[in-house]
Amino acid sequence: MKQKIDFILKEDLHFGERYIFRFYPRQSSAYVDKDDNSVILGDYYYSIIYQYIDDEKHSWESDVKFCSECDEDSIICNVGNACINIANGNYEEEYIDCLGNKKTRNLFNYEFHSFGECTTWTIQKIDDMGKTYYGFLLWRYDNVGYRFTLENQMKDFGQYLIYCHEYMKDHVRAVK
């Protein structure tokens, strides 16, 4: 099993710095239904790291900016699908509520959350001087949060989140 799976959120090699979303499969856990191979429950560990080149050591140094040690019953797969939908120009999605009613929700400013001690995700659309950015707000269960933006990486980031979820599904034992 891999130790980490990285996605570069922002990189500026001129100044020697980058921000990385890092998923830790070895510290994460998932329980898969052996009948249909779906993830029943995923408790995921991930962080956002600022890395910079130390001029004296000539190597990358790291500073953890946000860490979710146990995103209980994680919804990163749902967030990944939302990112792909937004990248494809679909800003709404249909869902079925707990009473069986078909409804539609806007993907912007919707708080993605699960049950338990989880991390909530909110995606915002930001129009600034002719450019469109997508802001992500992450809040842990203990009210520690972090914000980052993406410009042209929504589809790639969505695929990355889904890949992390699928990776866990493929590397755990089935239950039931």
Question: Can you offer a commentary on this structure?
Answer:
By secondary structure, the protein is of the alpha+beta class. The chain is 16% helix and 49% strand. It is built from two helices and twelve strands, in the order E-E-E-E-E-H-E-E-E-E-E-E-H-E. Strands 1, 2, 3, 4, 5 and 12 form a six-stranded mixed beta sheet that branches. A hairpin with a 4-residue loop joins strand 1 and strand 2 (17-23). The two termini are 23 Å apart. The model has no long low-confidence stretch (mean pLDDT 89).
* Shape annotation: globular
Give a count of the beta strands, DSSP E runs of length 2 or more: 12
Provide the structure class.
alpha+beta
Q: Which residues form runs of ≥5 with pLDDT under 50?
A: none
Number of domains: 1
Give the overall average pLDDT.
89
The percentage of residues in β strands lies in over 45%
Helicity, as a percent range: 10-25%
Taking the sheet with the most strands, its summary is: 6 strands, mixed
Compact description:
The protein is an alpha+beta fold and 176 residues long. It has two helices and twelve strands; from the N terminus they run βββββαββββββαβ.
Give the helix/strand layout.
Layout: E1 5-12, E2 17-23, E3 29-33, E4 39-54, E5 59-71, H1 76-87, E6 92-96, E7 102-106, E8 111-112, E9 120-128, E10 131-139, E11 145-150, H2 154-170, E12 174-175
Parallel strand pairs: 3-12
Antiparallel strand pairs: 1-2, 2-4, 3-4, 4-5, 6-7, 8-9, 9-10, 10-11
